[in-house]
Amino acid sequence: MLNYYSFFKAFHIIGFVTWFAGLFYLVRMFVYHAEVEQKPKELQADWRAQFTLMQWRVYKIISTPAMVITWLFGLLMLATNPAILDQTWIKIKLVLLVLLVIYHFYCKTIIIKQEKGEDRAGSFNYRLLNELPTLFLVAIVLLAVVRDFLDFLKLFGGVIAFGIVLFIFAKQYKKRRESK
């Protein structure tokens, strides 16, 4: 007899790995798109058009289908083992996933703004925004693996501290780039 749960879990993992890869790449392109202003004037329109094309492709062809696959197979796992919904960690994980979906759709609004030339956020802000899925990823994986709520709180405190360290490094990196 086939163990459907294992297949659902495998495709869930494939989905979220692909989803995160797409989100990381997409927001990195936001950084480069924001830096187009630093390119020679005669090249800026072509660069903007190319980044916009790439962003839409990653969003529509990679990130969004991967998000759907992640949710579909995650929900199939829950349908196969509904008792898991009684555990605290899965409820927190689902909240984090809803927040990640909001982040995903927020990225779409950025593509639209950059496409229209209405974006003024700046590359540094996108560098910071690019770290947000890292925090989601670490928190979600820790929850799924550790599952004990108190241990999760300790680990998540470490994740937040890690996020602060990333922010400090990003600020230092920005200072160093601007001083050159």
Largest sheet: none
Work out the strand percent. under 5%
Low-confidence stretches: none
The separation of the N and C termini measures 64 Å
Identify the overall geometry.
flat
Walkthrough of the structure:
By secondary structure, this protein is an all-alpha fold. It has one domain (about 5-180). About 85% of the residues lie in helices and about 0% in strands. It contains 6 helices and no strands. Helix 1 (about 5-35) packs antiparallel against helix 2 (about 40-80), helix 1 (about 5-35) packs antiparallel against helix 4 (about 125-130) and helix 3 (about 90-115) packs antiparallel against helix 5 (about 130-145). The longest helix is centred in the middle third of the chain and has 40 residues, at about 40-80. It is flat, with a radius of gyration of 19 Å. It holds the Pfam family UPF0093. One of its GO terms (cellular component) is plasma membrane. Pathway: Porphyrin-containing compound metabolism; protoporphyrin-IX biosynthesis; protoporphyrin-IX from protoporphyrinogen-IX: step 1/1. Homodimer. It is a multi-pass membrane protein.
List key phrases describing it.
protoporphyrinogen oxidase activity, metal ion binding, flat, mainly alpha, 180 residues, 6 helices
Topology readout:
Layout: H1 4-34, H2 41-80, H3 88-116, H4 123-129, H5 132-146, H6 149-179
Helix pairs in contact: 1-2, 1-3, 1-4, 2-3, 3-5, 5-6
